[in-house]
Amino acid sequence: MSLVTKRALFWGITLLLPLALLAAAELMLRATDTCAPEPLFAEVPGSRGALLKFNPWVTRRYFDSTQCALPNLAPELFTRVKGENVFRILCLGESTTAGFPFQSQVPFPPQLREILAHAYPQKWFCDNCLPE
Question: Which end of the chain is more exposed for a tag (fewer CB within 10 A), N or C?
Fold first, then answer.
């Protein structure tokens, strides 16, 4: 084996070995379902899968419950299948999205819903308030 071939083999192994180890670790974690992420949405019990809500445990993805209190998500319910005249917007954020530190503590998502409802009266902006 020539010197050039040995060097090429050395650098090939040196560069590919860390990637192979990471890929093996990833496959092992996926196969054992270790550190599986919490889904953003969860089925509403008793709805037979027709209604969804924000998963209250999804914040465990980002926060350690032993270090701080887990933030709560707004308890919005919505249908799994979006209606034809339904317009869905998801607002993710922190305290400002929840309405703090403003005096009236009015979060902007309900304000946005009202503004869009006036701009698009033919659309519904709330799955759980659809007409019967």
Answer: C
Cβ atoms of 49 and 43 closer than 8 Å: yes
Listed residue (30, 62, 56) closest to 41, CA to CA: 56
- Please check whether residue 70 is in contact with residue 59, taking contact to mean a CB–CB distance below 8 angstroms: yes
Domain ranges of the chain: 1-35, 37-81, 83-132
φ/ψ (deg, to 5) at 75:
-80, 70
Asked if 70 contacts 61 with a C-beta cutoff of 8 angstroms, the reply is: no
State the DSSP H helix or E strand holding residue 12, giving kind and residue range, or none if neither: helix 3-31
Q: What's the pLDDT tens digit per position in 36-94?
A: 777 888 898 888 888 888 887 777 777 777 877 766 666 778 888 887 877 788 777 77
